[in-house]
Amino acid sequence: MIGAIGFGATFVSFLGALLGFAAALLALRGRWSSGPAVRIAMLTAAALVAANMIMVVALVRHDFSISYVAQVGSRTTPLLYTVASLWGALEGSILFWAGLLSVVLMLFAVRTRGADREDLPAALAVLFAVLSFFAFIVLLPGNPWASVSPVPGDGPGPNPLLGNHPLMAIHPPLLYLGFVGLSVPFALTVAALLRGQLDDRWLAVTRRWTIIPWVSLSAGLVLGAWWSYAVLGWGGYWAWDPVENVALLPWLTTTAWLHSAMVSARRGILRGWNVALIVVSFALTILATLVTRSGILDSVHAFTESPIGPLFLVLFATVAAGALVLVALQLPKSTSGGTPLGTRGGAFLLNNLLFVAVAATVLFGTLFPLIVEAVADARVSVGAPYFERVIGPLALGLLVLAGIGPTLPWGNWTAESRRRLVPGGLAAATAAVALLLLDGRPEVVAAGAASVFALVESISLIARRVGALRARGPGMHGARRSVGGLTAHAGVAVIGLAVLASTAGQTDVTATLRAGETLPLGSDTLTFDGIAQSAQGAGRDAVTARMQLREGDRLTLVSPSLTLFTASNATVATPAIVPGALADLYVTLTEVDPAADAATFRFARYPFVSWLWVGGGILVAGGLLAAWPAPRRHGQPAPERTTVALDHAADRI
Amino acid sequence: MTRPRPVTLFGLGLVVVAFVALAAMSLQTALVYDLTPTELSSHPVGERARLYGIVVEGSVQFDEATKTLRFAVTDGRSTAAVSTQSIPTALFRDGVAVVLAGRLTGPATFAADQLVVKHSEVYAPLEPGETMPPGILNAGGAPP
Description:
The complex is a heterodimer of chains A (653) and B (144).
Chain A: H1 2-28, H2 35-60, H3 67-72, H4 79-84, H5 90-113, H6 120-139, H7 171-181, H8 183-195, H9 200-231, H10 242-267, H11 271-293, H12 308-334, H13 342-376, E1 379-382, H14 384-404, H15 415-419, H16 422-438, H17 442-472, H18 480-504, E2 507-514, E3 518-521, E4 524-535, E5 540-551, E6 554-558, E7 561-565, E8 570-574, E9 576-578, E10 583-593, E11 598-607, H19 610-627, H20 639-652
Chain B: H1 6-30, E1 31-35, H2 37-40, E2 48-55, E3 61-63, E4 68-74, E5 79-84, E6 97-106, E7 109-117
Parallel strand pairs in B: 1-2, 5-7
Antiparallel strand pairs in B: 2-4, 2-6, 3-4, 4-5, 6-7
């Protein structure tokens, strides 16, 4: 019954998306106003939100007559993970994706309708077309509402790895929101191309609709790394796994766009390049879905088992081919000349080339095994060393640029701007000498010096900007964007330092201890008290090792555990992490011998790894600061114009 | 916009060539074959590879003196003998799917330096007699 209602809501939303597409086309031809399309957007969003809510209700009520619930639900799964299993498997995740897209579409329609947006009908047509595609998949090949008979008494529950940490309830929606949000800049760009005017307003509006998805993607990626660190138990946070890689790709190209858009806004050039970055970012979000949701990773040959993969491939090809044709036809008349790059523009261009090189490296390394399997019928793996060796030098260049770029003037390099490099330069030299004595490996010295340089430069420039604004009067309008950008740079530099320290300085030891034994760890000691068996609520049994960490006078309880999920007969090791500002202690229980009251552990120290999450937080905060709308006052020009004018002013500070 | 000078173009070309060379070289060192026990015999001894298979029931032995773990893995058609000194996790037992990173020591023998037990994205325990479930190869799980 409830399944039929859910299916009905999905069907209504599919019809709504098609109608909305038609209404938007009519508005585009000037037959209608955009009013009907906007109202249809609201209706469609209501239907898809309802469909998602119905699925959540079905999951929470354990209605196993619905195929998706029977596939991922279980009576023993805690409520949070039951709700989170909405996006835990294929069909639900596409339903959730379509729901998010419909809400973003509605917000875009409502926010843009009041103003004189001649691009609205075309942009709405693009978004409705994409939404129809997703609604169609939910309706037919990925229908989560199919009825199951006979109705099973219980289900297997979600993948144990996904039902083990609250971060799993936040990190995927943030990534999805980022992916889905990137369809708006794409739609705006198609609209601007159709109109034949890639003007400043296109840049300003597109930027506003790009930065929120960018923030969301950044947060999703960092939280995903955190989840990986806290759950998977091998101590790492990034494995160059294809699923991680395809989520990183749109972030890389969008970050490149956020930089190149500034050159376009200031100098009027690189507009075609900006269009390319936006189109590629959107295409990469489709590729991400294609790669993670089609079974292509299991085997290229499993690709055609479900029609969903090929359908996504069709969408990907349509976007790529359509964009190519549109760009070829419309770009020459859409852009007008500009002024030369200038010093800062050159730095931005270099930044873009580096970002694109990183993205190309990741894309190639991710797709290479698929190509080999398709062509030569052999399976290969591209290991982390490939990514690290190629991306390392590029990342180093990006860090140095993050420090230098903001000090550069748009015109010629001056003595004044050279002086601004002094604080970072001194700090970097100090760091280099310290690391040379401490570690000595050239890559460690270079990466450390570059990160310190970017961090100190960012902080000193923020201080300079804020100081100059104080002198001018209250409020910080105008500097919001540049301070936001510099804050994001500082966040990236902190992430760089954390990655470097936790990789270069990690130490680990594996040991088997009997109850009562004590292991010395540097100046600290760890005492193993014994094993405790516990039923952690229904459906999971846990074996926990109780240990005490003594650091000087301080005692901390450390309890790594192994959880057995009875429904799926899978064991998940949950590491115990003692976080610290200087280093985390990371203890994983690898084996238990109850007869001997002994257990085997892996003890690892990861220096500075906590700063990775802090750096992620700073990055996101910087993005939010830059995204925050400037205060609108009566009689003042539109905020984006104000910001550009004040950017000019800030430049002279 | 002014046209870029030939020197600039040449420099850029050089950078691109250097980058592609670096990428190709790194790929060569980081690339390993993913093999099943059946495919093992057609690869040269000494080659680095990753071996995928199911731990054969009752084959696990631990040599206390040399601290070496020995077991057999199968893909349903052939089996290969594995030796490793890495300590298995608690997930390791008869019948689980494992990924072993290491080196071929013979047509049907493999020395592993890393042992990973794989989870599939949607975990289904193996039925008796069932071979590798589809989807176990590359889905989720802790990387080495």
